[in-house]
Structure formats: structure tokens, C-alpha cells
Write a structure and sequence with these properties.
This protein is α+β, with helices and mostly antiparallel strands and 177 residues long. The protein has two domains: 129 residues, Gcn5-related N-acetyltransferase (GNAT) (Aminopeptidase, 3-Layer(aba) Sandwich), CATH 3.40.630; 47 residues, no CATH class. It contains five helices and eight strands.
Length: 177
């Protein structure tokens, strides 16, 4: 029996393909998801989303900074996960995960994060994963509590959305909720 580090119990991670554009485009129309993930951007054309997926699929692999598609074991594209601000000297990195609405609460985000943590901790010798989470993103707070993350700090009034300022919670803060 073989082992694929990019497969978990319910998902596998794979490169983004140009053919994924329709699912990403549909997800991009959901303003609530955009707000939970990052920020609400202006509308993107279908051609713009095609170009984005093409650019993502052509980026290549540096082993540290990447965005991967999350696919369930039925072969459905269910979201994406990315890593950024990777500091191999100090062993720290950040990641973000986004699951398409129709696939929420099925364990896909948790499984995808565990795969990323396994790769960074066991293969690349990183020692700390950081997740920035908005204080209004209850789903992400619950996810990170479930994963055993600990609340480390809170960046006050860092994000303005939906008419008010919000805090960003860091990885280690989650245990106090």
C-alpha cells in the first residue's frame, strides 16, 4: 500500500487546473465568503477568472509558497489552500484555507490544514504555523480550536468591512474562546 502525503482522510490536495475556473468563478460571486477569507473585491469577468486559474496552474512549485486545489475523494473541487510569508530560516509560515459554501462542515478544511501542517512540519522542518482569522469568522475560529491551535494575540481594528472595524485573531488566540 502506498502513501501520498497530499491525501488525507477526506480530501486530497492537487495543483489548480485551468479547467477549475467555473467553480472558482461561482465561489467568487459569494460576497460573504469573500469577506470571511479576505475582502470584497470588485466583480471579475469569466475571462478574468479563467486567466487567474491559468496563472495559478502555471506558477510552478517552490515547495514553500503555493496555492493548491482541495478535492474530495469523489473528485469534486471543494476549495483551495495557500501558504505565504514562509520563513524557512525561522521555521514559520502562514496559510489560508477556503471551502466553497456547499461543502462547509464536512471536515474538508480540517483535513486540508492537517495535510499542510504534516508537509511543513515533517518534511520542511518548520516549527510554527500561523493563521490570521477575523474575529467575526466563527467557522474559522471553531476550525482552529478543533485543530488545537492556541490563541497568541489579537490585532485590534485591523480590518474594515460591512460598516465596522474588526480584530484579526492569530493562531494562538483560539483556545480562549
Amino acid at each position: 500500500m502506498s502513501f501520498n502525503i497530499w491525501e488525507g482522510k477526506v480530501v486530497k490536495l492537487r495543483p489548480i487546473e485551468t479547467s477549475d475556473w467555473e467553480e472558482f468563478h461561482k465561489d467568487g460571486l459569494d460576497s460573504e465568503i469573500a469577506r470571511l477569507n479576505d475582502t470584497i473585491y470588485g466583480p471579475r469577468t469569466q475571462e478574468g477568472t479563467r486567466k487567474w486559474t491559468e496563472d495559478e496552474s502555471n506558477k510552478g512549485w517552490d515547495g514553500h509558497h503555493f496555492r493548491l486545489a482541495i478535492e474530495n475523494h469523489d473528485g469534486d473541487l471543494v476549495g483551495s489552500i495557500n501558504t505565504f510569508d514562509c520563513d524557512s530560516r525561522n521555521g514559520t509560515f502562514y496559510y489560508g484555507v477556503s471551502i466553497f459554501r456547499e461543502y462547509w462542515k464536512k471536515g474538508y478544511a480540517s483535513d486540508a490544514v492537517k495535510i499542510i501542517l504534516r508537509y511543513f512540519f515533517d518534511e520542511l522542518r518548520y516549527q510554527k504555523a500561523n493563521a490570521l482569522v477575523y474575529n467575526f469568522n466563527e467557522g474559522s475560529i471553531h476550525l482552529h480550536n478543533h485543530l488545537g491551535f492556541t490563541k497568541e494575540g489579537c490585532l485590534r481594528n485591523m480590518v474594515y468591512t460591512n460598516g465596522e472595524y474588526h480584530d484579526i485573531l492569530t493562531k494562538e488566540e483560539f483556545q480562549s474562546f
